[in-house]
Design goal:
about 45% helix; about 290 residues; globular; alpha/beta; seven-stranded mixed β-sheet; two-stranded antiparallel ribbon
Length: about 290
């Protein structure tokens, strides 16, 4: 996700402000899950031999999976977490790297005794679920990227690095204006519902700016291509088409993949078109099951 994120950051605006009532978070389950003393808030619903573990994107929270929790918990065990530093999860650490976030998932998987896990990660969480899949080969059977991995294998240039550093500087100096401008200009489609826009922008505005910037900055050194090869798993993608997915790098590097598309949405297909998104995730689960049975 990092390269596409860098490219998107070039579209940052500097003065976009919205507000609305924050949607109520889902209630945490009873078992307390911690990673190195940091509390990980989550919901745990449904039953089944397969577990779906949902991880939200940058500056958001587990409430963005509420439709998926309702739909899929009828057939599967469904866990949705707040990433450390966001939502109701703890903030008491300084490491916000992809590796640290993947260890949070390790703790969730271990402490909740999850098996046959399909990890689903939106946006920046794509890298996180990829690393967690590598960490947990006995328990994770697949991982799914949601609107990410759009430029696998693309080599970043000196200009990319310079622009990213500049974007980080802007975020540190005026987080709300820059972050909201970035979302408004780069992540919504022409058809994204106004209510959904306001919800997302309000949640981003409420995010802890220090943690949000650190999470973006510290996740920058993650080598997606090397990790995809190390995972030795099929890459499942459910992406929007407001920006194209370049599959050339996956083909060139022989990364097995299945790309499914939710048409006509922005960066948040699970809330912008939950019906189609759930249909595509059903297809992924069926494909995973067909390979597992062989």
């Amino acid at each position: 996700m990092k390269l596409s994120l860098r490219l998107l950051l070039l579209l940052i605006a500097t003065s976009v402000m919205f507000s609305c009532n924050h949607s109520a978070p889902l209630t945490s389950a009873k078992i307390k899950v911690q990673d190195s003393g940091v509390n990980i808030a989550y919901t745990d619903t449904g039953k089944g031999d397969t577990t779906l573990l949902f991880v939200h994107g940058w500056a958001l929270n587990r409430g963005y999976w509420s439709n998926q929790v309702t739909y899929f918990s009828k057939k599967y065990r469904v866990v949705a977490i707040d990433m450390a530093g966001f939502g109701e999860s703890g903030k008491n650490r300084a490491d916000w790297s992809t590796t640290a976030y993947s260890r949070d998932l390790d703790s969730v998987i271990s402490q909740l005794k999850l098996h046959n896990v399909i990890l689903i990660g939106h946006s920046m969480a794509g890298d996180i679920v990829l690393q967690a899949a590598i960490n947990n080969p006995k328990n994770v059977i697949a991982f799914v990227g949601v609107d990410n991995f759009k430029n696998v294998g693309r080599t970043e240039t000196a200009a990319d690095k310079k622009n990213f550093a500049f974007a980080i500087t802007l975020l540190k100096h005026n987080f709300k204006a820059v972050a909201l401008g970035y979302f408004e200009q780069a992540l919504f489609s022409k058809t994204t519902d106004t209510v959904i826009k306001k919800r997302i922008l309000a949640d981003v505005a409420r995010a802890d700016s220090t943690i949000a910037v650190a999470a973006m900055q510290q996740g920058d050194d993650f080598d997606e291509l090397a990790k995809l090869k190390a995972a030795d798993l099929k890459l499942y993608l459910i992406n929007s088409d407001y920006q194209p997915t370049d599959t050339a790098g996956m083909v060139k590097n022989k990364i097995p993949y299945l790309l499914l598309t939710v048409h006509g949405t922005g960066h948040f297909p699970m809330v912008e078109d939950a019906v189609d998104f759930n249909k595509q995730l059903d297809r992924v689960i069926a494909d995973v099951g067909s390979h597992k049975s062989k």
